[in-house]
Design brief:
Layout lengths: L3 E6 L11 H11 L3 E6 L5 H7 L4 E4 L16 H7 L3 E4 L2 H6 L4 H13 L3 E6 L3 H5 L3 H12 L9 E5 L13 H19 L1 H6 L1 E5 L7 H5 L6 E4 L6 H11 L1
Parallel strand pairs: 1-2, 1-8, 2-3, 3-4, 4-5, 5-6, 6-7, 7-8
Helix pairs in contact: 1-11, 5-7, 7-8
The structure holds phosphoenolpyruvate (PEP).
Phosphoenolpyruvate binds next to strand 8.
């Protein structure tokens, strides 16, 4: 009942030339209609990506909470939609850390994304020190409580669990740890949004997902897809993950 979603986050990588990679990704998406394939390029490439491939869902990497105003360098949900995005990542750990975004700010961004008619991918995840201290579960539970809007609906909300120590490191948590964390996230979503909505929300795993580990991670009961960084930059790396999800 939950469609698998494989989302690529290009971060601050890529140029117009990189959009050539979308052809292979789009072909894989067409081969596997049961998988939603998303690419989140830098904002400068959203319109060109949308024009290049209507068969890949194009997303943004961030969205400001306000509709308009004196926010130099920021982009509103309406601007992202006009460019061609239909969803937006919010609260990625690189923004929580680098831009000091709080749970309240992430929630405000998610509300703006959803109110505009887009889907928000709300990112949560613990640091290595928090996991080593045995605090991974309460840290992520608090992020879910603080970052997910209270009235989120399953068609407008995706949650991505991304342990910070797994992002870009080649390290991934054990299958047991992923299983436990995703189940806990769904339980927390159920308490917040109700059992029916929580059962329909997709929870993605992110952090060094690649062709070698995708099948095992995607086989976990409450893993409904992946948020992929480095391995989403080329079709050669991304397409095997799409295939593993099918
Ligand atoms: C990410 O930053 O969202 C991510 C999952 O990166 P990577 O796949 O490179 O670890």
């Amino acid at each position: 009942m939950r469609r698998t979603l494989i989302a690529g986050n290009w971060k601050m990588n890529g140029s117009r030339a990189a959009l050539a990679e979308l052809a292979g990704m789009a072909a894989a998406a067409a081969e596997h209609p049961g998988v939603d394939v998303v690419v989140c390029p830098p904002a400068t490439l959203i319109a060109a990506a949308r024009d290049a491939r209507s068969d890949v869902i194009i997303g943004a990497q961030d969205c400001h909470a306000a509709a308009a105003g004196p926010y130099t360098g920021c982009l509103s949900a309406a601007m992202l939609i006009e460019a061609g995005a239909t969803l937006s990542i919010v609260g990625h750990s690189e923004r929580r850390t680098g831009q000091h975004e709080t749970d309240a700010e992430v929630r405000a961004k998610a509300i703006a994304v959803m109110a505009a008619g887009m889907t928000a991918i709300v990112c949560v995840g613990e640091t290595e020190a928090q996991r080593d201290a045995g605090d991974a579960m309460p840290v992520v539970a608090a992020q879910v409580a603080g970052s997910v809007p209270d009235d989120a609906t399953a068609d407008r909300l995706v949650v991505a669990y991304e342990p910070l120590w797994a992002i870009g490191t080649g390290r991934v948590p054990s299958i047991a740890d992923v299983t436990e964390m995703h189940a806990m996230i769904r339980t927390r979503l159920s308490a917040k949004l109700g059992a029916e909505t929580a059962a329909a929300v997709r929870i993605l795993y992110g952090g060094s997902m690649n062709a070698g580990n995708a099948a095992a991670l995607l086989a976990v009961a409450d893993v409904d897809g992946g948020l992929v960084g480095g391995a989403s930059l080329t079709a050669d790396a991304f397409v095997p993950i799409i295939r593993a999800a099918a």
